Automatic annotation (TrEMBL):
Lineage: Bacteria, Bacillati, Actinomycetota, Actinomycetes, Streptosporangiales
Family recorded in the similarity comment: Belongs to the aldehyde dehydrogenase family.
Substrates-to-products reaction catalysed: an aldehyde + NAD(+) + H2O = a carboxylate + NADH + 2 H(+)
Record's protein name: aldehyde dehydrogenase (NAD(+))
Keyword annotations: Oxidoreductase
Aldehyde dehydrogenase domain residues: 13-471
Taxonomic source organism: Actinocorallia aurantiaca
Length: 483
């Protein structure tokens, strides 16, 4: 299935035949199509369309209920396309088909949840402290949304839908590795009746992203991706006082206490370390184990790594697909080499599997006898590589967990609820899981330190697309707002 180079601007798919780039399937290493590398003119046209739609169009003047009804219609249309969407995502970035279809269906359900949240969130609050006041939420304006390749459908929904429900207009840029699947969501929204210009899509690489975030017509930038790129975006937005939301990298620690249940550790860290071939920003890639049961924890991790079935991602029996690109596999292999050179013990994995013969696969990998100063324990690898680090006591474990520039996720495994909460409260991170690996897109998600600014998802994610306006009322106007 060859995909064609198109941009979605001002309500229309626009063909582009100049400035193209190839999109390669990571399991076959074959081209599945070409995408447009949007030019400065393309980006400018898309932002101007979004600005016109925001300033002069009907969308932000609709009631929240009317916007929510349209999103719900679009969710139904998008849900019908779940299998097609999943197939294309698997072709683009290699996640197994059973997972990609499930995630597409979940994204459609998430659209409905966003609509329900919007309906339940008041846009005006009446206050009396210091005098009668109305605090009003107003849409922030034109939003630039930039997503990574490791979860393209869910990321698109999470960045586009709450912004639309708030009354904003959006210019969306998917990752160059996954430029095509967004078409299914766009077409569902268009068929549901979304006005022209409210949503625009430009594809391209890093330069297209720079053009978008620096465009003077953009009011807010939402980005998910690497910390290095996030710093560049944050600096650009700060110089122009643009609102910015950054969900960045991680090197999250899972603390295994001595009373942890082995089955919970194996199951939780199988997902936490190796799901999506480890290409997850919230991955629990540092496993901290007490010295008394260190060898047992290493054995549990080896069993967790061995439970995955590598193979053709279009085969329903496959549970672990390839890495997204040859470049990414080389990056992961380089880190594995660094771990060996630093003296860490390679317990399992570390190489390319014999089968399948094609594709950018790498085996689930576990390192033992590592310490927290090694690069494999400090830097985000973004591959199926887990590092097991020993600790002396729970206080030492908390210290090691917090000894990181990142603070996105974390976990503790223990049979003692009080210990679990005590550890959870002392780890400096934006999200934390107990006895599991959890990603809940109905509550705020984001990080501290070098893992970003702001929160995606949940009520807080929705509210981030508003500006607050305070209206100081007088005796005549106060009754118009008072409950």
């Amino acid at each position: 299935m060859q995909r064609t180079p198109r941009l979605f601007i001002d309500g229309q798919w626009v063909s582009r035949t100049d400035h193209l780039f190839d999109v390669i399937c990571p399991s076959t290493e074959e081209r599945i199509g070409q995408a447009a590398d949007a030019s400065e003119e393309d980006v400018d046209t898309a932002v101007r369309a979004a600005r016109r739609a925001f300033e002069d169009g009907p969308w932000r003047r609709l009631s929240v209920g009317e916007r929510a009804e349209l999103i719900e219609r679009a969710a139904e249309l998008f849900g019908v396309r779940a299998e097609q969407t999943g197939w294309l995502v698997t072709a683009e970035m290699g996640v197994p088909i059973s997972t990609s279809v499930m995630l597409a269906r979940r994204a459609a359900n998430t659209m409905i949840a966003w609509a329900e949240l919007a309906r339940s969130t008041p846009l005006t609050e009446f206050r009396t402290a210091g005098g009668p006041t109305a605090v009003v939420r107003e849409p922030v304006g034109v939003c630039a949304a930039i997503s990574p390749w490791n979860g393209p459908v869910g990321m698109a929904v999470g960045k586009i839908v709450p912004a639309l429900l708030a009354g904003c207009s959006v210019v969306y840029k998917p990752a160059p590795e996954t430029p095509f699947d967004i078409a299914f969501l766009v077409d569902a929204l268009r068929e549901a009746g979304l006005p022209a210009g409210v949503l625009n899509v430009v594809t391209g690489g890093a330069e297209t992203g720079r053009l978008l975030i620096r465009h003077p017509g953009v009011d807010k930038v939402g980005f998910t991706g690497s910390t290095a790129v996030g710093r560049e975006i944050g600096a650009a937005c700060g110089s122009e006082f643009k609102r910015v939301q950054l969900e960045l990298g991680g090197k999250s620690a899972a603390i295994v206490l001595e009373d942890a249940e082995p089955d919970q550790v194996r199951a939780g860290l199988a997902m936490g370390c190796f799901f999506n071939s480890g290409q997850v920003c919230a991955a629990l890639s540092r496993v901290l184990a007490p010295r008394r049961i260190y060898d047992e924890v290493v054995s549990w991790m080896e069993q967790a790594a061995g439970g995955w079935v590598l193979g053709d991602p279009f085969d329903s029996a496959t549970t672990l697909g390839p890495l997204v690109s040859e470049r990414q596999r080389m990056r992961v292999e380089n880190y594995i080499g660094l771990g060996v050179e630093a003296g860490a013990r390679l317990v399992c994995g570390g190489g390319r599997p014999e089968q399948p013969g094609k594709g950018w696969f790498i085996e689930p990998t576990v390192f033992a006898d590592a310490d927290n100063t090694m690069r494999i324990a400090r830097e985000e690898i973004f591959g199926p590589v887990a590092v097991v680090v020993p600790y002396d006591d729970p206080e030492d474990a908390v210290r090691i967990a917090n000894d990181s520039e990142y603070g996105l996720h974390g976990a503790v495994f223990t049979s003692d609820p009080e210990k679990a909460i005590s550890v959870a409260r002392r780890i400096r991170t934006g999200t934390f899981s107990i006895n599991n690996f959890v990603y809940n897109n109905r509550v705020p998600f984001g990080g501290v330190k070098s893992s970003g600014i702001g929160r995606d998802s949940g009520k807080e994610g929705y509210e981030s697309f508003f500006e607050l306006k305070t209206i100081n009322l007088d005796a005549g106007t106060a009754p118009l707002f008072a409950p």
